[in-house]
Every structure is written in structure tokens, then in C-alpha cells.
Design goal:
Metallo-beta-lactamase, Chain A; 19% helix; 5-stranded mixed beta sheet; 12 strands; alpha/beta
């Protein structure tokens, strides 16, 4: 787990909410977090990055397995994107010194990053970029197939307003199921989901570990703190608590490890002795922190 916070990180630079104050002052038990991203490997030699956050430089430095050799070769094979949000893609620009970059993204995400935000168009001016189209439902080997991993993306429906119109609606947001081809065990990475529909829940079946959207505890969390009028669902994230919340829907699932990630700075689960954190403990659901390692 390279980063476990939502956009802006924890603490967020312009936020004085109770959680951000606590982590700055040390008044409550909590730790800083960088913006969400994971690195996956079958052999700890060849790595695959899921989302490239603006904190990518410090994240790589904090994880020796991703350090370069005596020259400038790094054991990073490719980057797989769940969406085109800036907190998941701006790190691509910080990787421009590389010899080239392989980016896995849906057609919708690729279109947004090329014609909308311009992230890929800018990156291509500095280094070669190879786009690998992501087709939800297709099983795809990672790397050359010899490393023993494959992935299957799945569409995650969202009605969040588009900042850059023009891209296709289908594939705006995807989750990934990464499978160890030897054992058949799988990890699902789902940092952004607006609603846990029956189709999405079906994609989680029989996985060994689930890293799932834990952005907000309550749907109206931001307005309660006087920080914004948007709800968690307005921002494209199902809340943890409440009717139809992720806690209610995920608790019954038989999954070895369930871990909330992409946690917003306003979420009280960031405080280790909070009542909300105790509720998750009672349900056997973890709260991700940078540096967490999960082996399946």
C-alpha cells in the first residue's frame, strides 16, 4: 500500500477539520497518509502500479523494492488506472524521466487524459507512452505473462458529473481483480465506487483480499463539518455508514481481508481510538495505512 488517503492526502494542506488538526498536533492517535495507490508483484522483483498519485516520488522512496538499480532502471513494469481523477494520474507526469511508460486504461479514461486534462499528451512530449486499452471483463496477463499475474477490470457505474465532457460514460471508473495464476487467489482493488450494485458485489465474490473505497464515514460528512455542500455520493463514493452504505453490504461477504482505503481527511476512522474505528474492528474490517503489506 503506497498511499491510502483520498485526494489531498492526510492531513490536507488547506483543511483544519478535527482529524487534520489531530495528526498535525499529535493530540490523538493517528498517522499521516499519502494519496491512494498500490504496487502489486508476484515475485517482489517485477512490480505493477495501480494509479499514480501526486505523491509518487515519496512513495517510491519509501519502498525499497521500487528503488532503481545502479543506473536508472526501475522494477516497475506498468501503471494501471482506475479512472482519470487528478489524484490518481498526476503522478504520471512525475515519471517523465523514465525511458518509457506503459499505461493500462479504458478508452474513456484515455480520452479524458488526452483531450481533457492533457496529462498523457503532456507526458508523451517527454517520454514514450504505450497505451494498453483496458476492456472490462477481459482476463489479461500482466507483463509478458511469465510473472504469474493476470487482471480483469470491471466497470463501476457512476453518475458523478463529468469535468471534461466528451469521453464515453462506460469505463469512466473501473475496479481491478488481480489473480495469482498459480494459486488462483485474487485481490480486488476498488478505491472508487459510488454504489455497490449487485453487479459490482458479484465482482468481489471469492476474492481473498478487498481494498475498497472508504472515503467518507457518513454521506453528509463534509456538510456536517461546514467544509462543502457535496455529499460523499455526489463525489462518487459510497459512504461507509448508513442504509446502503458499504459497511452494511460488505460485512456479510466471506473475504479473508477487507480493507478500507482512499480515506478522506474528514473521516473519523483515521483516528485509531474513535468510536467509528471500533465499529470497523467489531466487523473485522481494517483501515489501510501507507506501507501496509498484504500477501494472498
Amino acid at each position: 500500500m503506497l498511499g491510502s488517503a483520498a485526494g489531498g492526502g492526510f492531513p490536507q494542506w488547506n483543511c483544519g477539520c478535527p482529524q487534520c488538526r489531530a495528526v498535525r498536533t499529535g493530540s490523538r492517535p493517528c498517522v499521516p497518509r499519502s494519496q491512494s495507490s498500490i504496487a502489486v508483484s508476484a515475485d517482489r522483483k517485477l512490480w505493477f502500479l495501480f494509479n499514480a498519485s501526486p505523491d509518487i516520488q515519496s512513495q517510491i522512496e519509501s519502498f525499497p523494492d521500487l528503488h532503481p538499480d545502479a543506473g536508472r532502471a526501475v522494477p516497475l513494469q506498468s501503471v494501471l488506472l482506475t479512472d482519470a481523477e487528478l489524484d490518481h494520474t498526476l503522478g504520471l507526469l512525475l515519471m517523465r524521466e523514465g525511458r518509457g511508460l506503459e499505461v493500462h486504461a479504458t478508452e474513456s479514461v484515455h480520452e479524458t487524459l488526452t483531450s481533457g486534462t492533457g496529462v498523457l499528451r503532456t507526458l508523451e512530449a517527454y517520454c514514450p507512452v504505450k497505451w494498453q486499452p483496458v476492456l472490462p471483463g477481459a482476463e489479461v496477463p500482466l507483463g509478458d505473462g511469465s510473472n504469474g499475474l493476470s487482471y480483469r477490470a470491471f466497470d463501476v457505474p457512476t453518475v458523478k458529473p463529468m469535468r471534461f465532457p466528451g469521453a464515453a460514460t462506460y469505463g469512466r471508473v473501473v475496479g481491478y481483480r488481480v489473480t495469482d495464476c498459480g494459486s488462483g487467489r485474487s485481490l480486488v482493488y476498488l478505491p472508487c465506487v459510488q454504489q455497490l450494485t449487485p453487479d459490482v458485489l458479484e465482482e468481489l465474490a471469492d476474492c481473498s483480499a478487498l481494498l475498497v473505497d472508504g472515503t467518507c464515514w457518513q454521506d453528509d460528512e463534509m456538510s456536517r463539518l461546514g467544509l462543502a455542500s457535496k455529499t460523499s455520493r455526489d463525489m462518487g463514493h459510497v459512504p461507509i455508514a448508513g442504509p446502503g452504505g458499504s459497511l452494511e453490504l460488505l460485512s456479510p461477504l466471506s473475504i479473508d481481508r477487507k480493507v478500507y482505503t482512499h480515506i478522506n481527511n474528514t473521516n473519523p476512522v483515521l483516528i485509531q481510538d474513535s468510536p467509528e474505528r471500533r465499529i470497523l474492528d467489531q466487523h473485522g474490517i481494517e483501515v489501510a495505512a501507507d506501507g501496509l503489506t498484504i500477501e494472498i
